[in-house]
Amino acid sequence: MSEDGRRILQPEGWPQPRGYANGILAKGQILVTGGVVGWDETGAFPAGFLPQVRQALLNIRAILEAGGVGAEHLVRLTWYVTDMEAYRASLKDLGPIYREAFGRNFPAMALVQVLSLVEPAAMVEIEATAVVPE
Fold first, then answer.
1. What is the pLDDT of residue 7?
2. 3-state DSSP of 61-98
3. pTM of this prediction?
4. Pairing of β 74-81 and β 108-113
5. Distance of CA 64 to CAs 12, 50, 55, 105, Å?
6. Which residue, 112, 20, 106, 127, is CA-closest to 64?
7. 71 contacts 61 by C-beta, under 8 angstroms
8. Beta-carbon neighbour count of residue 32 at 10 Å?
């Protein structure tokens, strides 16, 4: 375990993941978000996939901060997108947006395309789990 109570799990012989971890072992207090969308504090969505991703990530960061938790405590993100091609087409620009919100902290992640989200204007919804060491 590292000083922050987490251990990145990388099975021997597996290729090194880029921008995420295969798994993380952590011990401590858990903070779990609901599905966080890319709207601002007034409920307005920015136009476009990347601006919504940026806002969703910043919204998660605000929830973490409200719990006294930092991005370094993230252990899992689950992304739900309505357009996988928009995600794939945005890969080059996603890195800087992600690092703006979370730095170089890369938790275990999953990405799922869905038909729609509860908020009709939402293009992305992200759930986050963080573990704060005891």
1. 86
2. HHHHHHCCCCHHHEEEEEEEECCHHHHHHCHHHHHHHH
3. 0.89
4. parallel
5. 32, 21, 14, 14
6. 127
7. yes
8. 12
